[in-house]
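Possible regression after last week's pipeline update?

I re-ran a chain I had predicted before the update to compare outputs. Posting the input and the new output here so someone can diff against the archived version. Not blocking, just want to make sure nothing changed silently.
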Amino acid sequence: MKLNIRSQELGSKGLYLALYLMVNLSPISANAQNVHLNGNAGGKRFDGVGAVSGGGATSVLLKDYPEEQRNQVLDLLFKPKFGASMNALMVEVPGDGNSTQGSEPSHMHTKDDLNFNRGYEWWLMSEAKKRNKKITLDANAWGSPAWVGNGVFWSQDMADYYVKWIQGLKSVYGLTLDAIGCRNEKGVSIDFVKRFRKTLDASGLQNVKIHAFDNWGKDKFDWVKDLETDLELRNAVAVIGNHTMSEVATPEEVKKLSERLNKPIWNTEEHTYKEGFDCEITLVKSFNENFIISGATKIVNWYLVGSVYPTEPYAETPAAMIANSPWSGFYRTREALWGYAHYGQFAEIGWQYLNGASGKLNSGGTYVTLKSPSKDYSVIFETKDAKINQTATFTISGALSASKLCVWRSNEREQFVRLADITPKNNSYTITLDPKSIYSISTTTGQQKGSFTQIPTEKKFPFPYYETFDEYVSPKQYGYLPHYFADIYGTFELAERPDNKGKCLRQVVPVRPISWAPGWQAYTILGDDKWQDYEIGANVYLNQGDTAGVMGRVNDVGSGYGTIPKGYFLQLGSDGQCRLVVSRGKREKNKPVGDAEQQAIIKAGKDYSEGGEKILGVVKIANVLPGTWHNLKLVFKGFAITALVDGKPVLNVTDTLYSHGMAGLLALGGETKLSTPYFDNVLIDAPGAESPTPTISSSNIKPMYRDIQK
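New output (post-update):
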C-alpha cells in the first residue's frame, strides 16, 4: 500500500496517523511469515500419497478400455512426473460381496477353490508398478466368502485367505505386497491381528506390515493404548491405521505413543466429497493437515478412478479421473488429479517431513516441507481459507540445496501451471501466496502437466447389444469377466456352457458372502440408464433350486451401503414359478429376500412402499425342469411391460413407477444360499427388432493377462 504524504501539509497527529497506516496496512509487514529450513533437523519418513482401488469395484470399466486409452489413463494416474504421479496404491482383497458400488471376484469362492487369475486388481497393481517401480502396494479386505470361519471373518481361515492372496500376487505377478490391513471399517479384533501376524511370519511374509484397525468415528483410536501394555499386540501391529482424520483427528496421546513406540500413523482412507477446484484444494489441505494435525505419514484417498456406471453411488465425486465409457474410449480428468500431482511430482516415498518446517500460515492455509535423502526439498502450500495475499520468507541451512526452485500453482482458473523460478540469495528467498491457491516449490526438476491429444468423443452404450460370450476363447486372460458387465453383489464369471456348446456367464457364488454392505441378491448390470423403450432378453440354465432373472429399467443400485436396486425383474425358478416384480429400492432393515418371504409377499399381494417390492404378476410355466435352457425377455413400451418365456408372452402389466434405466442379470437366493445359474445370448434391442449379429467388443480391447496361456 502506498500513501502520498507531504509532511509539511500535515499536523503532528496527521503524520502519526499516516505512519500508523503505512506500518499496519502493508501486506508485506502484516502478513509476512518467516520459516527456517534446517536440512539437518531430521523428521518422520514420508510414506506416500495415493488412492484406493476397491471398496466398491471402482475400476471395473477401466479394464474394458481400448489399450491406447487404457494406457493413457494409467499414465495419468501413476507415471512419475506426468499426471497425478501417485506413489501409493491400496487395493481391495476381493470377497464376492458388495463393498460400496459393487463386488469383486474372490480368488477362493470356496475353501477348495483357488484361482489367481480372477478379477482386475492384480492387473492394476502390475500396471502401476510397471510405471513406477517405487510405488508401494497396500491391501485390505472389505468382506470375504461365507466359508471363511464358517461365517466368522475374524478367524484363522481369514488369515490363511489373506496369505494365499499375497502368495498369488508374488508367484503369478511377481509383485511384493508392502502392507495389509485386517478388515475395512468393521471393528477391532486383538486376537485376530496376533493370529494374522503369526500366519504371515510362518509363511515367509515377515516383511509385510500390518496396519490396524482401519476404522472411522470417535472411538477409532480407543484400542491403541493396549499397544503399550500388550507386547504381542505391539509386535503384530507395525502401523496405526485409521480413516477420515480430516473429520476426527489423531488424539495427542496417540501421536505421542506412536512416536514412543516408533509406529507410524497412516490414514488408510481419506474422503473428499467436493466438486471442481474445491475438491482439489480440499484434497491438498487434507494431505497437509493429516500430517500437521494427525501425524499421518501416509494418506490414501477413496477412490482412484471413476470406472463405474453413473447410476451407481459415488460414481464420480471422489475420483481423480472418470473413465466410464470404454465402448467409446472417452475419459476425462477431474481437477482433483492435479491435487495429487502437487505431492506426487514433488516427493517420493522415503523422503522425510522436515522437522520445524510444516505448519499453518499466518493468514490462512498450511504448508508442508519434504526433504529427499540427498539435498533436494519441496514445499507444498494451500491457502484455501486465506482472504488476502501473504508472503513467506524461507532461510535455508544445513544439508539443503541452494539451487533455484521451480514453482507450480493451481487455482480456480488454471490447474498445475508453472510460474517463474525462485533463485535464493544468501540462502534466503520469499514467495507471495495468493488466496485459494495451491503451490508446490521444489529444487527438483522434470515436472510436467501431462496430457494426450485426440481423446475419443464420448458415445452412448452400443445399441443394440448382443453378447454370446464366445469371443472369450481364454476367459482367464480377461480375469473371467466379460466387458461392460458390473457385478453389484455376487460374481458373474465367464464359463463353459454345461452342454459344452461354447462360452456363457455364470453366477458362481453359492452362499451369501460375509459382505461389508448388506446384501440383497446376486446381480450384474450394464447399459445406459437413459434407455426407455427396449427389450432385454437372455437364455438361462437353471440348476435344481435355482431362480434366475433379467432386469430392466434399473435406475438405482443402492446407497453405497446396501445393494437393493430400483427396477423391474422377470424371475424364473427351476420349479416353473415365474414372477414379474418391481423393486422400490432399499429394503426395510436391509433384510435379504428369502423364498419364504417371497411366497408370503405373493400370498398377501403386498405392495411395499419405499423399502420393498411389489409383485406385478405370477404365472406357472410348464415344462421348466432343472438342467434345461429357457429364454427370458422383458419388453418395455411406455408404461406397458410384457414378460416372455421361450418367446411366448406370459404376463402383460402396466406400471408407471419407472420410465427408464439399465439392464441386468439376476440370480436369486434365500437367506443363506444363492442361485448359481448360467446365462447366455444376452440381447438388448428395440422392441420387436430382428436379432442383430453379436457385438464383438473385444476386437480392440487387449486382454489384461495376455501372457497367460489358454
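Follow-up from reviewer: compared with the archived run. The chain has a mean pLDDT of 92. Marking as no regression found.
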